[in-house]
Design a protein that fits this description.
This protein is mostly beta strands. Helix content is 0%, strand content 47%. The protein has a six-stranded mixed β-sheet with strand order 2-10-9-4-5-6, with no helix packed on it. A four-stranded antiparallel β-sheet has the order 1-3-8-7, with no helix packed on it.
Length: 113
């Protein structure tokens, strides 16, 4: 089973940017789409962005135009570039295969002045 390790979170002011990384334990080529998810305190875990093996992307309405998902197959890594961050983006961010599997430990993103 492929394991994922998320990193790159932190504390940032509103309007700032962060880039999250999701490193896979082995090649994920051919495993299908990858997603970034987030879970705010006392809320359910929601899909934020999705990227297919072909490179097609989809985003939640709340992050469209601000977040960009990408993947580097050579590095077995998926990224989430987050710009124009808002306090409501505060959450723990996770990555996982869209088809399912285990969750990593996530990375905390806090947007606050």
């Amino acid at each position: 089973q492929v394991q994922f390790v998320e990193s790159g979170g932190g504390l940032v002011q509103p309007g700032g940017s962060l880039r999250l990384s999701c490193a896979a334990s082995r090649s994920i080529f051919g495993f299908g789409a990858m997603g970034w998810y987030r879970q705010a305190p006392e809320k359910q875990r929601d899909l934020v962005a999705l990227i297919t093996s072909a490179g097609s992307t989809n985003y939640a309405d709340s992050v469209k135009g601000r977040f960009t998902i990408s993947r580097d197959s050579a590095k077995n890594t998926v990224y989430l570039q987050m710009n124009s961050l808002k306090p409501e983006d505060t959450a723990v961010y996770y990555c996982r295969l869209a088809s399912g599997g285990s969750w990593g430990q996530g990375t905390q993103v806090t947007v606050s002045s």
